[in-house]
């Protein structure tokens, strides 16, 4: 972990992600950012992703409408908002501004889950080559963020991605098969994946997306 020594720009952010660093703030009101380079990195496997049976049944019930890149700004604001389990946030005004710029440039993406016209869940992150750097997620309805993650994984697999960086292992993410990878191994995986010609598919054909989600439920996939 190191304190910022220079102004952080969207271009600097991309260079940092390419070598395995990412920025955080100590609080929502903090004016200083710092770079993280964890000894153990949380990685969600795209091949071998574990979709719990209960969640698979829930997805078949289609409780939410799912979109991508429709409400990026609202998603990041919801991720930064206070919640009972986490009243503070590492997303401050500068991080928000940087990610909005990355989204405008086509590097940052969001997945949104809806109940009618109400935004009830979502996530966002940065795509580079064949890597998606997951940043944060939120949920205001049961399973809303989990289903957003499943839709993200399906889109990444369809788009040719090979690495989904979750930053840290958590109890919430462990159910999907998230692994902790030592820093040196993660950076080797990163150096290969970041050069791949993958594409983030915001609106893939619905039948292809449905088939890819179905594959996540099949043993051995």
Structure, described:
The protein is 36% helix and 25% strand. The protein has helices spanning 10-18, 53-60, 72-80, 93-104, 144-159, 171-174, 183-193, 206-216, and strands at 2-3, 22-25, 33-36, 40-44, 65-68, 108-115, 118-128, 131-139, 163-167, 179-182. It has a single domain, classed as Leucyl/phenylalanyl-tRNA-protein transferase, C-terminal domain (Aminopeptidase, 3-Layer(aba) Sandwich). Strand 7 (118-128) and strand 8 (131-139) form a beta hairpin. The model has no long low-confidence stretch (mean pLDDT 91). Helix 3 (72-80) packs antiparallel against helix 4 (93-104) and helix 5 packs across helix 8. It has 221 residues and is α+β, with helices and mostly antiparallel strands. The protein has a seven-stranded mixed β-sheet with strand order 5-6-7-8-9-4-10, with helices on both faces. The longest helix is centred in the last third of the chain and has 16 residues, at 144-159. It is built from eight helices and ten strands.
Give, in order, the helices and strands. EHEEEHEHHEEEHEHEHH
Mean pLDDT: 91
* Helical content (DSSP H or I, runs of 4+): 25-40%
Enumerate how many helices there are, as a single number.
8
CATH class: Alpha Beta
């Amino acid at each position: 972990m190191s304190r910022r020594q220079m102004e952080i720009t969207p271009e600097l952010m991309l260079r940092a992600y390419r070598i395995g660093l990412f920025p955080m703030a100590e609080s929502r009101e903090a004016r200083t950012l710092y770079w993280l380079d964890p000894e153990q990195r949380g990685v969600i496997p795209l091949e071998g992703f574990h979709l719990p049976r209960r969640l698979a049944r829930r997805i078949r019930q289609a409780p939410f409408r799912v979109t991508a890149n429709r409400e990026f700004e609202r998603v990041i604001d919801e991720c930064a908002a206070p919640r009972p389990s986490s009243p503070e946030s590492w997303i401050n005004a500068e991080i928000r501004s940087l990610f909005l710029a990355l989204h405008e440039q086509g590097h940052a993406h969001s997945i949104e889950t809806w109940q009618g016209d109400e935004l009830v869940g979502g996530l966002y992150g940065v795509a580079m080559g064949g890597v998606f750097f997951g940043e944060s997620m939120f949920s205001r309805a049961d399973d809303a963020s989990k289903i957003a993650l499943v839709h993200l994984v399906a889109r990444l697999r369809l788009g040719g991605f090979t690495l989904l960086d979750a930053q840290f292992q958590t109890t919430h993410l462990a159910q999907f098969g998230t692994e902790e990878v030592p820093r040196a191994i993660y950076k080797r995986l990163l150096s290969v994946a970041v050069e791949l010609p993958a594409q983030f598919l915001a609106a893939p054909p619905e039948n292809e997306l449905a088939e890819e989600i179905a594959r996540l439920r099949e043993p051995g996939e």
